[in-house]
User: What shape does this take?
Amino acid sequence: MKLMVIGGGGREHAIIKSLKKNPEVTEIYALPGNGGIARDATCVNIGAKDIDGMVNFAKENAIDFAVVAPDDPLVLGAVDALEAVGVPCFGPNKAAAIIEGSKVFSKNLMKQYGIPTAAYEVFTDAEAALAYLETAPMPAVIKADGLALGKGVIIAQNLDEAKDAVKTIMADKKFGDSGNQIVIEEFLTGPEVSVLSFTDGNVVVPMVSSMDHKRAHDGDEGLNTGGMGTIAPNPYYTKEVAGRCMEEIFLPTIRAMKAEGRTFKGCLYFGLMITPDGPKVIEYNCRFGDPETQVVLPLLESDLLTIMRACREGTLADTEVKFSAGSACCVVMASQGYPESYEKGFEITMDGDLTAEVFIAGAKLENGKLLTSGGRVLGVVATADTLHAAIEAAYSQVPKVHFDNAFYRHDIGARALLACN
Ligand code: AMP
Ligand code: GLY
Assistant: This one.
């Protein structure tokens, strides 16, 4: 089988490595892939948002199955376009991807179907939003409606910060048209849990839970990033919480999407907060998380391609989805200065006795050398029987991966370990 994977980050590297385990797979093309992915797949210089480009490539190369991994092409309708020319895909169509593409849509969906989430108001007019804030409880959370590279959420501690946030999003248009509408919502507290799930639109099968670390520096200091590391499973996601999530959140969401004529097939990511009042949805993503995928897929024991095909064909109930009982830890190594400005072009080398898996996120191949080309450069991933051992194993391997100006967090998993005691 010839596969095509859209995207070019650490998540896509992890997906490709998992897909390769299926002996039926003869060729994997990554559009556009990256310098690390090039060692595991054939990279093609077609951008992840170039829908016409990917459709033409799929037709010309007789692609048997496509995996659309990032949010942008999903929200733009890449799956619809590929399916229209007969290429079977893993991923939601455009109508279903709106669950991530519009926060106003997802908040209204949750309200209508009684799915627990933070209380909120929607505004299309900056003046009305500013007037509302005068009496709103603080902190307040201000979110741009549309996609904003994961940066469209501002937590305002006081009225001044909240007003600034509204101006930044609605007047200065920091996130472009994504800020035409905003959601202002209640600030929730509690540990966060990421639950990625497979769904064929009827059945929902949660993957092993995980925990992201979004801030750039140790102790959750510094700016928000795309994610500096992950662990799985997440100890705050107990059996009791999992049971509540299935009944109160996962199944109601799948049923709601179907009832709306937006049947969701693919990976639905539940960003949850375990509040004193129970689990609530912070956000939905219409795709695998990054860097959650880098700890979740190494623990998957069943065949990823088989599961992906079952999601499309509506046969997930009859398909084995089994995860190991072990744990995993991913430590992201980034370029000094990320998520703001940073230098690129440094050579990445790895010691011969490296035992961890390395998923490359931001690197290019030049004359056979792997050079840094992004803020998040790579993730060092280890698995072990316990969370403690997985964290130790990942950190024991990080010093064996080298590039100039590298930095990483030293406390990935530390908060999770507290919950294990
Ligand atoms: P998002 O981009 O939606 O994942 O939001 C980024 C981060 O903002 C989340 O991971 C949470 O830590 C935080 N956040 C979002 N919504 C809320 C909320 N209602 N209350 C508290 N924190 C929130
Ligand atoms: N790690 C968060 C995300 O993928 O959105």
Summary: The chain is about 30% helix and 30% strand.
